[in-house]
Amino acid sequence: MLRSVLLAAAGSAGCRSLVERTPLTRPLVERFVAGDAVDQALRVTAALAADGRFVTLDHLGEDVTDVATAELTVRAYVELLRRLADHGLAGHAEASVKLSAVGQRLPGGDRIALDNARRICAAAASAGTTVTLDMEDHTTTDATLGALRALREDFPWTGAVLQAYLRRTEQDCRELAGPGSRVRLCKGAYAEPASVAYPEKSEVDRSYVRCLRILMEGAGYPMVATHDPRMIAVAAELGRNRADFEFQMLYGVREPEQRRLARTHRMRVYVPYGDQWYGYFMRRLAERPANLAFFLRSLLPG
Ligand code: FDA
């Protein structure tokens, strides 16, 4: 219930301006977001790399409604990738891209987003790193997987996220478990109808384990994106060579566990940066009531 309210608020312009104007939101946002500027993102990346963790960087933004903003996003990624290479960080960090940030929702958006994603992939290739496509709500899944197929023709290392809460995902895992395929498996963070997604958390968890098995038994490179100790234990028990998969967690979440896992496995941190943090922040609040309680307390006077 609370989760649905917060996820609905994530798409509301009124709530957005209220939350963004509240100065006390800032400390909590800073827990989850590396900073507004690329310099801050690079500093966080360097610190994580020095600590033995890998990084995937997300230039925050989604659902852009004009071509100019999509273009700015592409340029931001191109600059980011160039600077990762300049700082010697391209071996430690890649980019995560939301296709709706590069034009997917515009008229003719599939073509625009694909062309823009291609430019980002070309910049990643020049820098010597990779790109993973984030997955947004279920209305975009087919288009995003279509873009993935097209991108992989020129950039075979392009990865994508699959969301275990969707009923279709086991089949998508089977189709994407082939050689060279990089799949980031997460539970899923959007408000979805029961017609397409499992409504119960226990069903989502069972789906996650089934999907994980398919990916771990396949020939691709599974990226196990979860903070859930049970899912982490299942992945570790599936017995894959440690070099052939990795764990991933979000910046600001379960920091001690990230450090612990990095000692024995490849561990990658998803690091968002930029000033368009609202949607990302609200999804983090929706995931964890403790985050919301902390946020609400910060709004109280005195
Ligand atoms: P869940 O939220 O069910 O939590 C399970 C358990 O994990 C908790 O009971 C607790 O034990 C532990 N835990 C979770 N959060 C904790 C915290 N803050 N502190 C301490 N313990 C905690 N989603 C999406 O729809 N599209 C996408 O592209 C992505 N991309 C993505 C990348 C990466 C790298 C990650 C890690 C996640 C995503 N997600 C995502 C988000 C994902 O779908 C999901 O919403 C969150 O990861 C939360 O799900 P968990 O698997 O962590 O389990």
UniProtKB/TrEMBL annotation:
E.C. designation(s): 1.5.5.2
Keywords carried by this UniProt record: FAD, Flavoprotein, Nucleotide-binding, Oxidoreductase, Proline metabolism
InterPro entries (alphabetical): FAD-linked_oxidoreductase-like (IPR029041), PRODH_bac_arc (IPR008219), Proline_DH_dom (IPR002872), Proline_oxidase (IPR015659)
One Pfam family matching this protein: Pro_dh
Cofactor: FAD
MF GO annotations: nucleotide binding; proline dehydrogenase activity
Any one of the GO BP annotations: L-proline catabolic process to L-glutamate
Residues where substrate binds: K98, R283, R284
Keyword S-adenosyl-L-methionine appears in the UniProt entry: no
Manner of cofactor binding, per the entry note: Binds 1 FAD per subunit.
Residues that hold FAD according to the record: M135, Q163, K187, G188, A189, K201, T226, H227
Keyword Membrane (UniProt): no
Gene3D superfamilies: 3.20.20.220
Pathway: Amino-acid degradation; L-proline degradation into L-glutamate; L-glutamate from L-proline: step 1/2
Root EC class: oxidoreductase
Residue ranges of every copy of the Proline dehydrogenase domain listed in the record: 43-294
Reactions accelerated catalytically: L-proline + a quinone = (S)-1-pyrroline-5-carboxylate + a quinol + H(+)
Protein name: proline dehydrogenase
